[in-house]
Queue: 4 jobs
Job 1
Amino acid sequence: ILIVEDEELIHELIKKKLEQEGYEVSSALDGAEGLKKIKEGKPNLVLLDVMMPKMGGFEMMEE
């Protein structure tokens, strides 16, 4: 699971809960970093914030 979220508190809460449930989680703090990680690792699921600096979630989906 890839989490793309710019707010660190929300990001860490989601990551911690998913890891407690046994999921393998990777992280990105903005859309550009998220795209790079998607191309590198092909995650099964992406949790994506739509409002982020640099590149928002909608822009990221268009790429």
Job 2
Amino acid sequence: MKRVLVLAALCGACGGAPSIHSFTVDRDRILRGDSVTLSWNVEGARKIEIDPQPGTVTGSSATVSPQATTSYVLHATNSHGSTASQAVQVNVVQSAISSFAAFPDEVEAGGAVELRWKLAIPATSSSVNGTAVAPAQTTLRTNPQGDTTYVLTVQSALGSSTASVRVRVGARPLVTSFTADLPSVPRGTSTFLRWTASFARTFTVTDGTTTFAVGSLHSLRVRPLHDTTYTLTATNVLGNSTANRAVTVSGALSTALAYTDPLAGDEALRLVADPASTPAQAVLKLVATAALPSLSAIALNLPLDGTVAGSRDGSARVSLHALAGSNAPELGVGKLDPVTGSPTPAVALVLPATGPLTGTLALGIAQKPTSVGGPADAALAPGDAIATFKLDLVPEGGVGVVFDGSPGLLTPGNGFRVRLRAAGHDVVLPVAIGRLETLP
């Protein structure tokens, strides 16, 4: 009977979980990068693990260096697989310094700078570049003579923290040259303004009406319509510097526009003059010369190059005619329906003065696909007009050619594009362009 009781007692002990008498940490709040010691007192365990680190351990303590607030869990397991667990948390303060910055971070030599900082926990002592400041102080004024790195050191109950900020010492910009390739230009033509400057980060050029922001570029192509004084402004965080350059314009004003229709050939589209044209305004129509079934979109890029490919000189001689009471160009759309099914009509006509399409007349018209609520594709018969637009004479642009489709100036390499979408596919068809010029 006594033997049975002893065996029962032994079996009961075999099945019990290990006992964790204690699991502690020597410091439950530390600065990031510091180490703490985890200690434990465990009885009846064959294996002890601590998650998330260091994993399986022996002895009665281990050192860890958490990078963020971490809950460590001790798992004790006996030979029968029974386990017991206990957790302890270590709170990690990333730094006693929440922020450290300089205002401004770039000055002229001797300029005033204010260093500002915020603390996450109270300081027992503080210093900047080794010079003590009051623990409760959070600002410091300084006047650097050269580029300087300021190091803030803070002692707290948790230890030492540092942060740094760099202040650059520079100079105000100075324009050292501002010239024009051609200080006098014939009407309608262009010249390049070029400049150099010290310590500048960005530049703008103004003609008194329009300001061109050119970033860090050191040149700008301009096309004055009258004698113009250009002002260059070089800027950095410390200030700006300016310089002026005059460009004069010579040549007669123009008095009329004249358009010559292209010769008939095997083209699918022709740009022709409308009878409504006047000496002060060319009304041009893009018309089909053959049947074009299932048309849903057209795009046209027409560079206004005059007689010199790439010059865009012709763009100074005309402007897009705007709707009355509006800055929007007047554009008549035939056959295509850019409105149905679209909250915003898919139609545009522009003649940009800046950017990659400078001096290029760009036209685009598109229908929304039938599959998503758009109209049926358009069917054009010979003579149907796809688009009609108006170009107004700009007398100050001088006498000369606006564009000419006959001598081979209008090539894809020079930016000329005509693309249509028919039956769901992009197609390229021959297009005939005539000659638009201004007369004395």
Job 3
Amino acid sequence: MPRASAADAAETARRILDAATTHFAELGYATASVDEIAQAAGVTRGAVYHHYSSKPLLFAAVAAEQQEAVAGAIVQATAAGVPDAALRDGSHAFLDAITRGAASRILLVDGPAVLGWQEWRRLDADGPERELRLGLREAGAAPVLLDALTAALSGAMNELALWLAAHPDDTDARTQAHTALDDILDAVTPRTRLDGPPTEGMKEGPGVESGAFRSSVTQIRATR
């Protein structure tokens, strides 16, 4: 019986989470109500609060699941690629995954305000940013630049996603966003390596890495 009870509880929590995802995505956090979520899940309001003690915590659970789904899309897109191609494929997969379906409204529109900036950043760091860091490292990013490059590229991609989320049905905007992302990646990836000759305009010796980072950030800003 305890096993059946645990299974029933897990199934109920799953129904609540699915219903909440639909309502938050379609109506937005402010409009979606716990009563409507409970009705859609086929449970009582009390059952919702038994599993998720408040509406903000229910939203946080939904957001965490959506962020993991975005990270999963990145992993799937990069599974068979060589390092340089994987970084690019994963970055484009991120942009599409986070700006389509439930993820767009939940993570980009309501997420920062409902979760707070620090929690929103933590979710990103534990999911998509984690995969981005791995992609940069496997593509040959200099260890001394890895943290800075991850922060710079993650910030640029998040801003691009926020911009695209404001144009959800604009195919031209999506094309422009992916083109801009390619330009950003072109600006960053040739300068992340320690091997090979210095990039034109850069001097050999101490400070090459920091100069490369400044050059990369300058080009990133120019594309935004």
Job 4
Amino acid sequence: MSNTKSIRIMLTGGGSAGHIAPILSVIEEFQRIAPDNKLFIDLHYLGPRDDYSGQLERYGVKMHSLPSAKLRRYISIQNIIDIPKFIAALILALLKMLVYMPDAVFSKGGTSAFPVVFAAWVYRIPILIHESDATPGLTNLLSARFATRIAVGFETALKIFRTDAAAFIGNPIRPSLLSQRLSKSAAKTALGFNPEEPLVAILGGSQGASAINEFILSLLPQLLSETAIYHQTGSATYEDCRVIGESVEKELPADVAAKHPYRAVPFTDEMSKVYSAADLIVARAGASTIAELAAFGVPSILVPLPDTASNGHQRLNAYEFAKTGGAVVLEQDNLLPGIFLRQVKHIIGNPAEIEMMSRSATSFYKPDAARLIAEEILRLALRQY
């Protein structure tokens, strides 16, 4: 161990699961790479403390808090409220960075990431930022001016950054998620479904997508006549979904209910099984979700968040991914029962369509994204020696 080199990496980014999931992917690559390269990687996180960033502690990351201050493109009273928080975050970031002085910084953007990037730039610490979406968020647009390297998850984002420091890498997927994938039959069985029957998974996300949940519940009798349903609801609407689902099942003919059960869960740590089992997934169009759909080759119906809720990021993500042929996009304002049911029936009732969409989705997958990001961060860090 005497010739092991110790390096310190500061991680930042937060505000949603979509900001933290890629960080987890890169951490797993660090853990894989470090022993073979005789490295000890001391990982720190500087950003808002919440349920999302709290996942990092399971990986041995040392946590340091910053006030949560969001940068917005639109006029809001919240901007005035956040100005003192932003200043406090900037001062704290400068102090924390001086104390811990990492060898490199990896930023995923989002809440309070810019103060960390700016502080690293002040101390001439190399910075790699990663932009997951098809069009950059405000934090990463500002951070790009101070970044040493910029990695993007969608090729279209390169047109906006317009710098040789930017490269199209893709969105990283946790190796542990992929290593747990099962055959479709085994996965359906593991989740308690008949492996011979179709299965549609509805993903409400960590917070639940109330508009999608309500829409699915209104169509449950028609859907369950065609397919089993796995519904990840989010915690807020779980109980309502469970009760309504049980009520609908009781109204179905016994043979249909037995073949096509409805299962609601508030959240799940079995996503590898869900992706492996599903013949079709209905979900929002977050960048991490799309990357996982591509990795597992699952046909999907994407319902992006309205532009007012996501600054248009999800809509652009969805249409960019749909160009492959692996997904159908139904915007929330056009989420009509007849159109939705026709799409579901067409896909799950047509094995050739499932196979074509699966191959098309897989073509979007960048299997080396996590490795390339981790290796570049380490290269930047080791330049300090």
